[in-house]
Amino acid sequence: MEGEAPPLVPPHNSSYFFTTSLPSTSLHLPSLLHPPQLESQIAPDFDWVALLSGPIGYGDPNSVPASASVITSENRGEEEKGGKEKRKASRTKKAIRPKFAFQTRTTNDILDDGYRWRKYGQKAVKNSTYPRSYYRCTQHMCNVKKQVQRLSKDTSIVTTTYEGIHNHPCEKLMESLSPLLKQMQFLSRF
DNA sequence: CGGTTTTGACCAGCGC
DNA sequence: GCGCTGGTCAAAACCG
């Protein structure tokens, strides 16, 4: 079976899933806080701030507008072990972690979401021309992961799946907000 | 030199 | 039980 389109929805029980189309190749947080003109399936009242200020995929699935193409399936939990035990545990215990998947129309596989990621694997997947890449948050003690895969059906679309909760602030977000916070602190003195 | 990417090997889950 | 598949590890290569 050649060219069989991968399912629009990721195979796992994603917490959230929606499709969007970005004009640029990157997804800088400031622009996300004020989303550009997306020819998207995202509701205009989509809670971007909650999505991005909180850990990715975090929060109440009910807060996601029904008009967004969303799958909600709560799966949250923990996994903390060392070495192979951890590896084993992460596979045996059905990973109960928040997941969040979305698609972007971009030529760039790497989505700049403000966090720093280290690639730890790449794998050819069945029924897909393009490999799936596996990334992990570089922040120590933060075991958030993400998968990136380009659709073979529509090569301009990249599916990004986040898994887990960041336990630290977003560097770029803090970077961009710090002048504003300083200004607010200054003004609050009056 | 330290951090990141690449890539083959390994392992567990799942379907048959 | 076996083979397939997806996810991860880890050593080597690469890069700034």
TrEMBL record:
Keywords: DNA-binding, Nucleus, Transcription, Transcription regulation. InterPro entries: WRKY_dom, WRKY_dom_sf, WRKY_plant. Residues 84-94 have a biased composition (Basic residues). Residues 63-94 are annotated as: Disordered. One of its GO terms (molecular function) is sequence-specific DNA binding. The keyword Nucleus applies. It comes from the Eukaryota. Gene3D superfamilies: WRKY domain. GO terms for cellular component: nucleus. Residues 106-171 form the WRKY domain. Residues 64-74 have a biased composition (Polar residues). Pfam families: WRKY. PANTHER family: WRKY TRANSCRIPTION FACTOR 43-RELATED (PTHR31221:SF111), WRKY TRANSCRIPTION FACTOR PROTEIN 1-RELATED (PTHR31221). This is WRKY domain-containing protein. It comes from Tetracentron sinense (Spur-leaf).
